[in-house]
Design brief:
Blueprint (H helix, E strand, L loop, with lengths): L2 E7 L3 H14 L4 E3 L8 E6 L6 H15 L7 E6 H5 L1 H7 L5 E3 L7 H11 L3 E3 L4 H9 L9 E5 L1 E2 L10 H4 L4 E2 L2 H14 L3 E5 L7 E4 L2 E4 H8 L7 E5 L8 H9 L6 E3 L7 H7 L5 H14 L4 E3 L1 E4 L6 H14 L5 E4 L16 H25 L4 E9 L5 E5 L5 E5 L8 E9 L4 E10 L3
Parallel strand pairs: 1-2, 1-3, 3-4, 4-5, 5-6, 7-10, 10-13, 14-15, 16-17, 20-22
Antiparallel strand pairs: 8-9, 11-12, 18-19, 18-21, 19-20, 21-22
Helix pairs in contact: 9-10, 13-14
Amino acid sequence: MSKKIFIKTFGCQMNEYDSNRIIDLVKLIGYEKTNNQIDADCCILNTCHIRSKATEKVYSEIGRIKKNFKNAKKPLVIVAGCVAQAESEEMLERDPYIDMIIGPQSYHEINDKILNYFRENKKINLTEFNVTKKFDKLEKIKNNNSKISNFLTIQEGCDKFCNFCVVPYTRGPEYSRPFEQIINEAKNLVENGSKEIILLGQNVNAYHFISDGKEYKLSNLLLELEKIKDLVRVRFTTSHPKDMTKDLIDCFNNCSKLMPFLHLPVQSGSDKILKLMNRKHDIRFYYSIIEKLKKINSNIDFSSDFIIGYSEEDEGDFEKTMNLVKKIEFTNSYSFIFSARPGTPAAKLQKINNDVTKNRLKIIQNQLFNLQLNKNKELEEKKIEILVENKLKSQNSFFGRTRKMTPVIFESTSCNPGDLIQVEIISSNQNNLFGKHIENKFKAA
């Protein structure tokens, strides 16, 4: 009889990919995934350390596990991911309920560690940076994910060392997976039924792999994915402005499957703040990248990330960020109050007034929300291409996304997940479009 494993994923898309691969691994030692925590023999918390209170969210979730299993046999409790990497010893000391700590570059060893735990009944702390061995091991384990849209990690780690960012310390230096390894996994996902693949990396456009004297970049991956017959859409995230090279920009014209939408974090519109952040680019350079992309593909839209209230940000700096938002008209963007992460150069910086920061965040979020609302409004009464991702619980209702990632809920009596269809948009709100199925552009096999 198989054991049940419950996994809760916090944070980024890369964690989603990691969680799916963890499930593929533990199946080999007799575990099956459950979505009901109370049924679990093993509970894994795959954590993220980017935002504030990340650690406390983990302890809160452990508290829920304790409550759920108060009158039942304790499950094996594993904390994985970036919080595990950053605070491993402290976590084991603070809460004895935790049995195992596994960092994001070590989870390929999870099967051996689980078996060892039950043999020796000893706490385990595994937080080595062993990314090459990780992907060599994962290559041998089939990715069983069969969703219509799937994440595929191609690069991990970061060498940029932005002063506010914890990634170089939790994910390690930049590492690019072997080119053929990525293509083989992509083909496997398409064989499973995937129609869209989203390439992932902390700095995905820094992808760089050399084999037999030949250099492979992200542009080479995109051109190769273009050849996979049943793959209809490709995206990549998250990019750094400094790595938006000409060959990659040209892909937005040369690759028909690459969607005309790019998430390109800028963090601030002020050169002063960008320098304090150690972002290694200025606003003039950022604008130049946007202009080149629009020139190569006039239909492209952009989203971004904004950190509000970074140390020494004054009204003039914030106004420059607002001007940037208005000029580029970002959609689907994220904005956060500056959160000092322990161990980073920015951890000791003086914070600006909290009320001022909250007010600035409200202003920029209102602007971003209005931009998204207006963009969605412009699509009403138009017919647009949708990739159908899944059927909703309500009768004849489906969910899909536009080429620019906007969610669409629509009525249909003749489509299936994986179909590429035309939908007439009837109404919208800030987050979603609503419509009805008109015709099929591509019918899933």
